Amino acid sequence: MATATNFHVFLAFTAIFAFLSLAATATTIATKESVYDLLPKYGLPSGLLPDSVTDYSLSDDGRFIVVLDQPCYIQFDYLVYYETKITGKLSYGSITELNGIQVQRFFIWFNVDEIRVDLPPSDNIYFQVGLINKKLDVDQFKTVRSCRDSLTASPCHGTKTPSSSFKCSAQLNITVCDLAYETVIFVWVVVEWLPAAVDEIPMLLTE
């Protein structure tokens, strides 16, 4: 009789434990905030990411992974490209060690290495691309935008993606486009590699 009673008590405790575990799991899933709610808590605008985020993870040291349903583009002051997987390190007012976001300048795509805002907040947000710290109006990033999966027709981009080689649109003369491309590349190389006195080399250029 005592054995049966103990067995019933064991079953009762097992059932209660299983119920509490399931309830805790359900609560954790239900209370996971969206990445769009998370960004403002770090002083960053929620519209830095498109509306197509399907999942994200954030570790204790601030490292994160954001997953989109597909690569896509958003037109801000500059055209921005988002890869399916975006990684970086999140801290208050900045995202560093960023991978998976690119910006188009002069028909060429460049990786965005860091995004930050002023502290205390101002009207500006900064995209660091190599040695260039591009200052932009932060208001354009306050609204979460839809993300398109392809480029619309515009001069000299054809159907390329940021990782593909530069191609001209069929409507334009290939020689003219190639010339424009080569000119941009030449200017970029000269600016990046032209020798200068050590004390004249800027650590970071803000434009």
From TrEMBL:
Regions that span the bilayer: none
InterPro entries attached to this UniProt entry: At5g01610-like, DUF538
One Pfam family from the record: DUF538
Signal peptide range in chain numbering: 1-23
Keyword Cytoplasm on entry: no
Domain of life: Eukaryota
Key words of the record: Signal
Protein's UniProt keywords contain Signal: yes
Record protein name field: Uncharacterized protein
Organism in which the protein naturally occurs: Arachis hypogaea
